[in-house]
């Protein structure tokens, strides 16, 4: 096949996705890209490979005669939309954030709401660096057994933040149908007859796993498959279903979407939104809180199933 160079916009049109999603695929290393001058280009062959395999790819290194790309070289949603009173960027991967984004645009027609599909750690980092308006977080601290609060304090030092609950989700192991390896809980991480499907650095699942390894005094070098990473709950569940690994961690809701998967519940996690406290004085953010607390929004989430909405809209902490 002759390699044809495409722009991010052309790739977006080809894949029927937004241009911002193309940038996210490049940032996460799922779609190789290179620079011609200051412009990004993607080879048609790499797009075909992405469609066929859905496997993560590494951005080319300098010795391939393609310029190495850093994340700063890739236009972010902030750079394109100029994060201001006319745009909102929400970081996180759960589908309920897509619903929130849609409700924001419906309630505030003059506001454009963008989604950035990155993990919790990187979302908080972007919030600190003014590259995001709102970050979702489900980061478990193995020393305190608490979610999010300590991470917000550490990753946004000196910046007052308000942590608002969105939902509770059940985290657990995805295992093959019938659980042929008899996997039951965290202690099974010590077994050398199992292969694991991991998540990328910076996401809440990876932080949870690494914390549990510390708690159980297990080295990551002892985990067969620790370096095999997928970039979503859905991808991990699919990999286990296809026999790419014996087990992996994810949320219960996704397990119900994949054939040949059983779910072993481990613990309930708190999934929160983090907003800079000063921003809450802005009428736009006040309306966003009204949306989260509205019966309409909660009813829509209730219809999805798999979410515990007992504290939705509740202020968990102010740091």
Automatic annotation (TrEMBL):
Residues 104-292 form the PBP domain. InterPro entries: DNA-bd_dom_put_sf, HTH_17, PBP_domain, SinI_DNA-bd. Pfam families: HTH_17, PBP_like. Coiled coil: none annotated. Residues 6-54 form the Helix-turn-helix domain. Residues 53-76 are annotated as: Disordered. NCBIfam families: excise. This is Helix-turn-helix transcriptional regulator. The lineage of its organism: Bacteria, Bacillati, Bacillota, Clostridia, Peptostreptococcales.
């Amino acid at each position: 096949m002759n390699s044809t160079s495409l722009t991010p916009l052309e790739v977006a049109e080809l894949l029927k996705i937004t241009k911002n999603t193309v940038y996210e695929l490049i940032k996460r290393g799922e779609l190789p890209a290179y620079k011609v001058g200051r412009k990004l280009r993607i080879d048609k062959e790499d797009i075909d490979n992405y469609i066929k395999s859905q496997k993560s790819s590494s951005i080319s290194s300098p010795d391939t005669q393609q310029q190495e790309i850093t994340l700063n070289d890739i236009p972010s949603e902030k750079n394109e939309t100029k994060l201001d009173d006319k745009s909102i960027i929400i970081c996180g991967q759960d589908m309920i954030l897509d619903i929130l984004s849609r409700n924001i645009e419906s309630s505030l027609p003059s506001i454009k709401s963008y989604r950035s599909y990155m993990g919790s750690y990187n979302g908080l980092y972007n919030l600190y660096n003014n590259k995001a308006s709102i970050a979702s977080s489900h980061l478990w601290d193995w020393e305190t057994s608490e979610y999010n609060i300590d991470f917000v304090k550490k990753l946004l030092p000196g910046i007052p933040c308000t942590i608002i609950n969105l939902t509770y989700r059940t985290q657990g192991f995805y295992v093959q149908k019938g659980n042929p390896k008899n996997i039951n809980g965290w202690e099974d991480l010590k077994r050398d007859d199992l292969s694991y499907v991991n998540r990328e650095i910076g996401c809440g699942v990876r932080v949870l796993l690494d914390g549990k390894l510390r708690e159980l005094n297990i080295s990551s070098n002892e985990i067969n498959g620790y370096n095999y990473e997928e970039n979503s709950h859905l991808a991990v569940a699919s990999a286990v279903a296809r026999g790419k690994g014996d087990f992996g961690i994810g949320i219960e809701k996704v397990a119900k979407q994949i054939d040949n998967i059983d779910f072993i519940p481990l613990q309930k996690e708190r999934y929160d939104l983090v907003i800079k406290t000063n921003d809450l004085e802005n009428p736009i953010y006040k309306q966003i809180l009204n949306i989260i607390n509205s019966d309409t929004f909660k009813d829509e989430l209730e219809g999805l199933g798999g979410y515990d909405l007992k504290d939705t809209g509740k202020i968990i902490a102010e740091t």
